[in-house]
């Protein structure tokens, strides 16, 4: 698994991806500085940090998009460019390949996506507790989204477009409005964890801490099992 | 449709009634054969189903019907057998950012070869590539990439070596080198299955062939027998002359052709079972008529027509 993991990390890190994601992350840093130096009360700044910077910008946009870019490519790119055969025709079990892809995506997504959001939160003037909670919430969201998009990369072609549609329509809009939809939102669960640990206002339709942790864990396990099954049945070109 | 039967004593690859369809397209239809150690050539025109068959043998896709066994097990479900198979896939794709040595070392490592770097260097040397080359494979020519793929396929010393059009993109010297390598692998007791759509290329691989045409196994066995059969088949030629009609009558009367069809006053299509005789007789017939002979052009010497003929038998 170690070899497959290292190979996938190398194939994921491309200049174009890093430049695009660092630009999005850089915008967050400016956003954080803008909140810090805004002419507002401390309470308003904390609210803006929590709702807009961490919630909307971070967990609803940067984290899922970063996870999407890397996770959908981890196994999706080898399928598209037909290099999967070099991994597939080995005695490495399929679940190990999937876990290698998941870990490789996390290895790149966590510093790029979570790093940007946590740094922006710190720059906005948040206290240590909120920064720590942001790190935990962002890491959980990254883990959840990564498992989901790893599966998406195998299921559909143009996973980037489908994933982006899911993020913008479902996570950013529908799940924030409809209570039922919030039960199927990675962002709502990870923000619930963040709010609980960081002692800030929870998102609309928030879930309890334990429920959120259990659901996110189940999502990772179920998506990994699904991806493994799919990889096992895949027609490799 | 098999006309030359030659079953190996110890089959390492056995295919029984395999069919594969993708939607409405039938890629393989009721293919059965068994091969053993040594080199076997898989011959067929483009689109005959060669790559699909090789993918089934590597477990990369499942047959819609029938069974494929490699070393006695199903390659689709048995993980362990995959380390006993080496594949040169038809596609050019490689991990572009890696160096050749890194790529082959990776392959060796994934197959749990004890000293992957050393094994990779040896495999690259076997295909005349420099293990110390620092360039990524994306800068390699098509022939060099093809050789990287061959090195990657043999680095773990598999018992079954499957090569899908491995000579594509190689220069004549490298072709000879590779054909020698495949022969050596076969002589070592490995089962080497090499696909090609080039008839003359296959002749040099060895005497055993499988011929696929339109998804069916058209022939199996000794290459020489198949070659003779191909030489015996009726041939169709176009003959162009200043006055084709009397020339056609003359050729029919002499028995050099079994049929003639006038396309125009200056062109005719003829069928013959003895092409060399026709080529001799047409000169004297043209002199006798007399008419000026412009062109004698074989119409069915391409591989597709050969395979069509084999399928119809």
Tell me roughly what share of residues is in helical segments of chain B: 25-40%
User: What is the gyration radius of chain B calculated from CA atoms?
Assistant: 24 Å
Give a count of the beta strands of chain B, DSSP E runs of length 2 or more: 13
Round the Cα radius of gyration of chain A to an integer and report it. Answer: 18 Å
Shape of chain A: globular
What is the strand tally of chain A? 0
Ends distance of chain A: 22 Å
Structural class of chain B: alpha/beta
SSE series of chain B: EEEHEEHHHEHEHEEHEHEEHEH
Tell me the structural class of chain A: mainly alpha
Average the pLDDT over all residues of chain A and give the rounded result: 92
Classify the beta-strand content of chain B into a percent band.
25-35%
- Alpha carbon gap, first and last residue of chain B: 7 Å
CATH topology description of the largest domain in chain B: Rossmann fold
Name the assembly state.
heterodimer
Quick rundown:
The complex is a heterodimer of chains A (237) and B (313). Chain A has 10 helices and no strands. Chain A has 237 residues and is mostly helical.
Describe what you observe in this structure.
- The complex is a heterodimer of chains A (237) and B (313).
- Chain A is built from ten helices and no strands.
- In chain A, helix 2 (15-36) packs parallel to helix 5 (94-123) and helix 3 (42-80) runs antiparallel to helix 7 (159-177).
- Helices cover 83% and strands 0% of the residues of chain A.
- The mean pLDDT of chain A is 92.
- Chain A has one domain.
- The longest helix of chain A has 39 residues, at 42-80.
- Chain B is 35% helix and 27% strand.
- Chain B contains ten helices and 13 strands.
- Chain B has a six-stranded mixed sheet, with helices on both faces. In chain B, strands 11-12-10-13 form a four-stranded antiparallel sheet, covered by helices on one side.
- Chain B is elongated.
- Classes of the chains: A mainly alpha (237), B alpha/beta (313).
- The A-B interface holds A 3-4, 7, 10-11, 81-83, 85-93, 235-237 and B 55, 58-62, 79-80, 82-83, 85, 87, 89, 91, 93-95, 97-98, 106-107, 109-112, 152.
